[in-house]
């Protein structure tokens, strides 16, 4: 009887010390703290105004087609085409203006009905207080709309845990070359 009582006590102790994260098979997440991660730091709203230079022509393009569906040539919208980018981000629309970062990622022609892109890119900053930080944009860009809005889904460095939105407006487009300059107004909440 004493042995059964001892085993019962040990079993009860074992059950009570099993971590709560192991219950119900949810062992992939852990509650670290119920306190806010940054209790005394307030979020800031930053407005970034940049010009995105997408060069598909010339000897040193910054946008290169890397994949294309067999039917893309037959499509009026180029549906199924994928383009990798490493576009300059400058402070004004002139290509010689101050370079503050690079837009690195890709865009895909993702609509059969209209010229609409799936944009996935990081604005990687190389200048000033944001040097080494990034803002990540992922969203739909209907290129012939006057203003296109895409979500900011994250960032790194000074933009860690960023959220917000980007508005794109075409500044210039050369239909012969396909080169474009787009003004981006990015509104970012960050710590």
From TrEMBL:
Its main location: secreted. Keywords: Apoplast, Secreted, Signal. Transmembrane segments: none annotated. It holds the Pfam family Dirigent. Residues 1-22 form the signal peptide. One of its GO terms (cellular component) is apoplast. One of its GO terms (biological process) is phenylpropanoid biosynthetic process. InterPro entries: Allene_oxi_cyc_Dirigent, Dirigent. Dirigent proteins impart stereoselectivity on the phenoxy radical-coupling reaction, yielding optically active lignans from two molecules of coniferyl alcohol in the biosynthesis of lignans, flavonolignans, and alkaloids and thus plays a central role in plant secondary metabolism. This is Dirigent protein. The gene is LOC105038407.
């Amino acid at each position: 009887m004493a042995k059964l009582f001892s085993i019962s006590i040990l079993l009860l102790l074992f059950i009570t010390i099993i971590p709560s994260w192991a219950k119900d098979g949810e062992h992939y997440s852990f509650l670290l703290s119920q306190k806010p991660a940054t209790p005394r730091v307030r979020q800031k709203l930053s407005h970034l105004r940049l010009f995105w230079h997408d060069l598909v022509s010339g000897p040193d393009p910054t946008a290169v087609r890397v994949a294309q569906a067999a039917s893309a040539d037959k499509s009026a919208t180029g549906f199924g085409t994928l383009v990798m980018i490493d576009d300059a981000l400058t402070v004004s629309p002139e290509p010689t203006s101050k370079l503050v970062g690079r837009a690195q990622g890709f865009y895909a022609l993702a609509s059969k009905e209209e010229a609409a892109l799936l944009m996935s890119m990081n604005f990687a900053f190389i200048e000033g207080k944001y040097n080494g930080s990034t803002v990540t944009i992922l969203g739909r860009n209907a290129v012939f709309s006057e203003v296109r809005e895409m979500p900011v889904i994250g960032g790194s460095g000074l933009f860690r845990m960023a959220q917000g939105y980007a508005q794109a407006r075409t500044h210039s487009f050369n239909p012969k070359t396909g080169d474009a300059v787009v003004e981006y107004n990015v509104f970012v909440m960050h710590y």
